[in-house]
Amino acid sequence: MRFIFNLTRREIRSSWRRLLFFFLCIALGVGSVVALRSLIQNLTRAVGTDARALMTADVDVSSTNDFTPTEIAKIESAVAESGIVDGRNETITTSSMARPSEPANPNVKLVELKGIEPPFPLVGNFTLEDGKPFDFDLLANNGAVVAKILLEDLNVKVGDKIRIGESEFQIRAVFDEEPGGTGGFRLGARVFLEKKAFDGAGITRNARVRRRILYRTTDNPTALVAKLRESLKGTTINIQSYRETQENLGEQFEKTENYLSLTGLLILVLGGVGVWNVARAFVEQKRKTVAVLKCLGAGGGRIITVYLLQLLTLGLLGSLFGVLLAQAALLLIRWRFLETLPAKMSYSINFSTIVQGVTLGVLISLLFSALPLLQVRNIKPKLLLRDENNDSIRRLDFTKWLIGAVSLLALLGLAVWQAGSILVGAFFLAGLAVTSLVLYLTALLLTTLLRRFRGVGPFALSQAVNSLYRPGNQTRIILLAVGLGAFVVLAVQSLQTNLVREFDFTKNQKLPSLFFVDIQKSQIDDLARMIESHIGEKAETIPTVRARISHVNGEPFDFAQREVRQQQGQIGREFAVTYRQDMDDNESLISGSWWNANDNNDPEVSVEEEMAGRLKITPGDSITFDISGRKITARVANIRKLDLRNTRTAFVFVFRPGALEKAPQTFAATVLKRATATDRQRLQRDILESHPNVQIFDVADLVATVQKLVSNFVLAISFVGSFVILSGILILIGSIALTKSQRIYENAILKTLGAKRPTLTAILFAEYGLLGLLSGIIGAGFATLLSFGVSRYLLHIEWEFEPRLTLGGIFVTAVIVMLVGAAASFDVLFRKPLSTLRSQ
Amino acid sequence: MIELKSVTKTVRSGIEDLTILSDVSLEIPEGQFVALTGASGSGKSTLLGLMAGLDAPTSGTITIDGDEITRMSEDDLAGIRSAKIGFIFQSFHLIPSLTAFENILIPMEIRGAPNAADRANELLRDVDLTDRGHHYPAELSGGEQQRVAIARAFANEPKILLADEPTGNLDSKNGRHIFDLMTDLHKRRAVTLVLVTHDHALAAEAQRQIVLRDGVVVSDESGRDAVTGMRDATRGPGDAETVRRGDTAKGDAEVVDLAT
């Protein structure tokens, strides 16, 4: 043992520089795993740990209609019976338009209103920007407490007045942290008002109002929730407890955490490829030392132990350094994304995550260096007498196969562990294997093709091509690793470009530029006139009725069932439905038939394809809708597909005319013309002056919000992708080290034969330039394919080839590889040939 | 005692088998100083490597102190080397990542010998390198490196010392110094010394000279007579210079002196 420890120590002392890449590969991989896992953990903790605070209560009873006296009686009796409620309040939420009272200020903005009453919040904190707690007096007499962003949007300040609906409110304070609000996606800025001020402002006439009765309980509310669901069955009232929300949130975050960790694992596995390369080079360099040790009487097992211990020590140190890198990455993320991320998010790393990362790092070091280290067994001491290449290839070496199989199984185990699912873990590994195989085969094809050009072109170029086929070359591995990195980054970039183009409404002429909703029947003519006079376009108006599904084929949804509850957001929500005689251009039938004018008068409905799948219905089934408390049962006439790219409006349910005309309805209007921002703003202001209840969506604003989300998302993926590229580059540098002695020898011979340094430099640049070019071609090629596939078949959006992105990507990859490769080999040019040739 | 019986070694060269050693039988008693000579490619180094268990013969047996090493596993062979055999190479083969002192220490650590550091210092003194112990091989001259190699070979006090052209990479002065060191240690510790060399002058100082040609022992003689036999055996195309040097071999007196 003393021999093993002493030699390990001495070897680390002397070879750490050579193994620096081993260290870096592991550090980078572990850094990615730890950073990604910590990021999502901290995000979870900041956003989702306290579902109670998100809900601002323990139980949430909500409806889009006014609660009827019967419903209230049922709710209150269930609550009283439970005996666990110690706090109650009501809130109303809706969206509306806000504009400064100051006539000279032309701004208009959609805001999300929340009417509250004391005590609020039942759970959680409500603090103002100056750090003081929220006070209800601020809202008295038409006061408003607003999100900071609104001040910028409307160009107003605290103390200014704004108009919402028919009333005027004074901005009294800006809140810092909103109870139940954690910076999720929102159309407009949050504005808090007094609940009773809603009616005065005429806002409750708005159809999209959600009323909530919130309860704080002293005990587990599960039984109360079950009781409420039972007694309110068949109504459209939604009941939630914080426990269920917590459960769903927890599950979602855990999934996200595990998937992100897989991305980290991908980088770590690439690091593993680097480790494998370095370990191979290491054993190659240590051949003589191993032979000497064997000659001096050390057994193969002991020597392998020494080197394994050495690599594991470096793996451990690399992993610890990786944790430091992860911490640095988190700080970088804080610096870059502070605005986007929750204010209270922590940027530290959990101890258990550190342990997990370090364990992964050490295991990957072990798995990927075990096979190369086994080569030590094949090194014979006789090579000291006659240095022949004695790496006899034993094709059926049982130990090698065994270790290989164990490594693969262990890798699968790691993937399963990180994914938190056997299936996902296995898919990850299989996906990685298939991707690598495809990239590798492409690399093989390209290098085979290039081989035909050996000896073609100027001396430097033909020498460079020859160099790619140097014995023991790592050409295909480098192409695979760097190509994979380029592939990830370019695929994401290409998808982004196509997505952004899709949302670019200046190009997509079918998307409306302005969208008006909640128009009363009496307001239609006036509104149409105003639109025409401002913009010169005759607006298209569509009747809309708000409805909820209460029964499918006579059965109510059973929200006590978990899988039904998980779909609640999709099937239990309120739908805007319309009625018309004809199918739109952007619609096509999947099954059933469209109605004729002469059909009978029974209510019939057309259902959008995805929703039909969700409700598991086919033509002939029946759906009962709740429309302002009235039930209408309609026969499903057909299932219809919507082409979302060519649509002004997208209705999930379309009724046959005849059933809904008498129901309370509002109208929506769309404008297609791309008016200037000033014209759009002026139109919005004028409409709101005379029709304050109308809500206007400026699609340009929405698109900007979505584009910001997409670009943040893309930035995040590109960030991860750049780590993949970095691993590829580390592998590149490692492989350069692997073949360096050959390069030195070749250069010495070329110099002896009269080659000058500029020629040798040209060969070096040409070689790595070629390598980078091939990697770039592989990466860009597959990125284009992936982007095309995802756009066409998954996102169903138009796809266009991006020559600038593709060529730019290939160029940048080539330049990076060329510079890194040349930098890593540059010292070779300055070696004196004599000493090199003598030592050979 | 080293005993070789009908040892043959063939290797594959391209598509045909090449015979390096052919039916070699030898007995080397304990404590004898044997010089192994012959032209390049005659099989000297291979024979030495087989004696050390660095390679296995194609056929025949080799025994060391009664243990047949031919059928031993790699690890058992390593054990035999650790306990009984010291090896010195023409190109020294020191471990470049270890200092001179650590290179000497290694065999003792492999064997788990006690007081290894003290003994390593003692050996450094023996080879006159006390102040060079902390230097790495690259920082030492060829002669110094070979002295470290000798100290390393003697670290576990082996009964057998096998030296493969130990002076081949050194100038004559350093070569002589190394040779004297080896023979001195051989005499003082009574080890069996098998020396592969091209230098007839050095070979002449051995108690016994074995001459190989094309893998066959063509001469195996003790003392003065051996020189003549060697001269015949090594004579061949391109070997004129060797032969001339053999003619002028001196040191007969020393051979006699050592043999007595």
Low-confidence stretches of chain A: 389-394
- Give the total of beta strands of chain A: 21
Compute the number of structural domains of chain A: 4
Through-space gap between termini of chain B: 20 Å
CATH T-level fold name of chain B: Rossmann fold
Rg over C-alpha atoms of chain B, rounded to the nearest angstrom: 18 Å
N-to-C CA distance of chain A: 35 Å
Approximately what portion of the residues of chain B adopt beta-strand conformation?
25-35%
Determine the most extensive contact between two protein chains: A-B, 29 and 34 residues
- The name of the CATH architecture of chain B is 3-Layer(aba) Sandwich
CATH class assignment of chain B: Alpha Beta
- The proportion of strand residues of chain A reads 15-25%
On the 0 to 100 scale, the average pLDDT of chain B is 82
What level of helicity do the residues of chain B show? 25-40%
Overall spatial form of chain B = globular
Structural class of chain B: alpha/beta
Largest sheet of chain B: 6 strands, mixed
Q: Enumerate how many helices of chain A there are, as a single number.
A: 25
Name the strands of the widest sheet of chain B in spatial order.
6-7-8-3-9-10
Description of the structure:
The complex is a heterodimer of chains A (840) and B (260). Chain A has 840 residues and is α+β, with helices and mostly antiparallel strands. Chain A has four domains: 221 residues, no CATH class; 195 residues, no CATH class; 220 residues, no CATH class; 134 residues, no CATH class. Chain A has 25 helices and 21 strands. In chain A, a hairpin with an 8-residue loop joins strand 2 and strand 3. In chain A, helix 15 runs antiparallel to helix 21. About 1% of the residues of chain A have low confidence. By secondary structure, chain B is of the alpha/beta class. Chain B has one domain: P-loop containing nucleotide triphosphate hydrolases (Rossmann fold). Chain B has ten helices and ten strands. Chain B has a six-stranded mixed β-sheet with strand order 6-7-8-3-9-10, sandwiched between helices. Chain B has a four-stranded antiparallel β-sheet with strand order 2-1-4-5, with helices on one face. In chain B, a hairpin with a 2-residue loop joins strand 1 and strand 2. In chain B, helix 3 runs parallel beside helix 5, helix 4 crosses helix 5 and helix 8 runs antiparallel to helix 9. Chain B is globular and about 50 Å long. The two termini of chain B are 20 Å apart. The C terminus of chain B is likely disordered. Chains A and B meet through helix 1, helix 9 and helix 10 of A and helix 1, helix 2 and helix 3 of B.
